[in-house]
Amino acid sequence: MNIIGRRKIWYAISILMIVPGMISLILNGLKLGIDFNSGQLSVVQGTVAESVVKTAANGLGFKDIQVVPSGNQTQIRFQDPSSQEKHEANHQKFKAALANKNIEELSFDSVGPTVSSAIARNAVLSLLLVSLAIVLYIAYAFRNAPPPVSPWSFGFMAIAALLHDAFFVLGVFSILGYFFGVEIDALFVTAILTVIGFSVHDTIVVFDRIRENLRREKGDFETIVNHSILETLARSINTSMTVILTLLALFLFGGQSIRMFVLALLIGVASGTYSSIFNATPLLVTWHNYRLKRMAKLKASPKR
Amino acid sequence: MTVLLALPREDTILRALGVPKDHAKLSVKQGLDLQGGAQLVFQADQKTLNKLNTSQKQAALESLVNVITKRANFGGTSEVVVQRQGSDKVSVSLPGVKDVNEAIERIGKTANLQFFEVNSQTNEPIDTGLSGKDVESATADYDVQKNQPDVRLKLKAGESTKKFGELTTKLSKNGNYLLTMLDGQPTFGPAQTEPILDGTAILTGNLDVESAKKIADEITAGALPVPITLVEQRSVGPTLGKESVQASIVAGAIGLGVVALFMLFYYRLAGLLAVLALIVYTTITLTLYKLSFFLPGYTIVLTLAGIAGFILSIGMAVDANILIFERLKEELRAGKSFVAAVEAAFDRAWSSIRDSNVSTLITCAILFMTSSATPIIRGFAVTLGLGVLVSMFTAVVITRTLLRLTIRQGWGRKLSWYGLKSTEEVK
User: Fold this and answer.
1) Chain B contacts of A187, Cβ < 8 Å?
2) Which ipTM was obtained for this model?
3) B263 within 8 A of B318, measured Cβ to Cβ
4) Measured between alpha carbons, how far is B136 from B120 in angstroms, rounded to an integer?
5) Is 0.80 topped by the overall pTM?
């Protein structure tokens, strides 16, 4: 099987997977939940009509009321513009009005602006820190990588793969946000970070084999890389299968409130497996060939 | 099968580690999203805090935690946890609380110390209008003559001292009693009093040294005007919590079962060993969750996200085994003897296992460090990180021991039992 030789097909598939999400990200962005935007979120049992919610909220001055069905629950989001001391009293009235219509509230979250800005700050900080730490770590772990590839190429190709996975998940959630009102919360950031960790985890296993084979074998770089992928293919697929199976169990049977979190992980892990086999490793070859060509050009050009 | 039966149960392990019998039956502590309840986060007023120096600020926040703990515990709700969060916030966990609004009002109240005049005939208390706001500070002290601890109040100079002087003078004349209530509970008195004109009152009651200090701290904190605002609230009803626990158990069991089946199907005998290692892994991890109870401040509280981290780590735990077994197959195909192949497989797979797990651990460490304000993320980071660490041990050490034992037996050296095809066996 020649995976490396067909790399243009794999790149095209990746681009096709990512582009719709990127377009949606640019046009619609992500739908930020109360963790980032502050506000109130009440989750009630069953499917509840918007008109029922609006009647219950009558006179309480809630703004920006949104009613979003989610499985066998309904999420009611709103902004209570009154002072923070009155939030809970208002919420109690709202809850009682719903209870009058036999609607049971399952959970209620209220996040103030100081808290949401701290969560957003931490999210950005942790994304930056994780990415930086991972480039440095891979460059360090592959510091003894034999030529022709430099340790930094390994690091940057792994980053290219993880960006692929992160943007794929972000894109899917941007689309889900646009069509189904799915919001992202603090846990979503955790999912992205975990996907990044997993993606690198997967990539490292393939790179590790390339490094080992480069030391032991002589021959064409492309050929060595290709059979390194094939040697680790069973492992890559089997590992992803076990992780995907556990996540699928969580998605289908686990708690409703983390369903979207698990979905983000599920999409990310699948993408991570694809990218380490079909992106990160072929990219090493593309990059290597590009450098060879450039060097040949330099040699061929007449000296000035 | 005997190996399975001989596997020690968690409480046996705990007791072997010296944990007392009644603690050995510890259960994993559940977060609010699982047991139901409310999490409230209060922020101390910035303007007030900015006026204080660092040590005063620390003291003020510490007393704030004390006061809030007492107020939150007032209704007798079990296991209230009050913690500092960041530099200016206090988080309150109220498991199983029914009336969140009442709890918020109770915690947010500013008046906590009140002085009452109690009629000596009718025992009827009358509010004197004096309160914690009139108190400058309180200290715990010891009356050497009476051989008992007491609390000494210093009233604010001026109006407060004058009013208190007038009150005590009146009481000493009409024979009524002075009652001091703290957070709505009679704490000192009712007792007779002499006229106190210098604004220093000695309060005696049924106290030991510790409680005197605690009360003094609380009175001081109460008198200290650090207004708080509720900035975050997350409450989960009991129905959802119960459903979540059941759903998580089902998901965990199915996840574990499917992974076990997959491993057995694909790697046969080696897969069985991996499943045994996985059972050991689950046991050790759950035991660690329980043992964390003995590390105050580091107790692992299992939330829904934490369970996700744990279940995800099951999937990752077998990754090390898959790496090793794939290597084992390769080495066997290359014609190595079983002993040599097993050693080579572990040897060669180790750098992959180590390097790949470190990247997940880095992610967990960074998540842990940046998540002081979001307990739900911290829970996930802790369970996933712990899972990765434990799984590196079980997947490598335990599986290797089991494999070495197995290949010593004649029946353990059959290629088809390691997922190799029979055509390869001929080779």
Assistant:
1) 305, 376-377, 380
2) 0.80
3) yes
4) 29
5) no
